[in-house]
Design brief:
alpha+beta, 146 residues, 3 helices, globular, Ubiquitin-like (UB roll)
Length: 146
Amino acid sequence: MKPDRFAIQSEQSGSMMYQEETMAQKYLIHIGNSGEDYTCDAELNLLRGMEVLGRRGIPVGCRGGGCGICKVAIQSGSYEARKMSRDCVSAEEEASGVVLACRVFPRGEMSLTVVGKMVKALERGVEKKGASLDAPVPAMPARPAN
């Protein structure tokens, strides 16, 4: 996608300057274990893209690639993977599409399954009658004014 250019006038010099505005590409992400679908900005990792929408399909841990809680197997789609702890994902696993959602950025529509340490809890939650992974994450209570 080509960025759009727009002109702004500098308040100090009065001259025109050009800036580029990029619109983040969004891709559909499907989580096979739960049937959950969400859209993720290309600029966000899969885990953060899910979290900003208040979704819960991928278990959340350290958010930095070191705990393995968000381990997923990519079934289809293209992505960019950043450095991950080899304690969590071996080179062989990564080569076969097993990655950490907190270290992967979508580059197209994707389908994945959760395979990390919390997969059993995720699947039990889906099996329970009335359980919903779409439910929004509760808001933090407001802090009292001092």
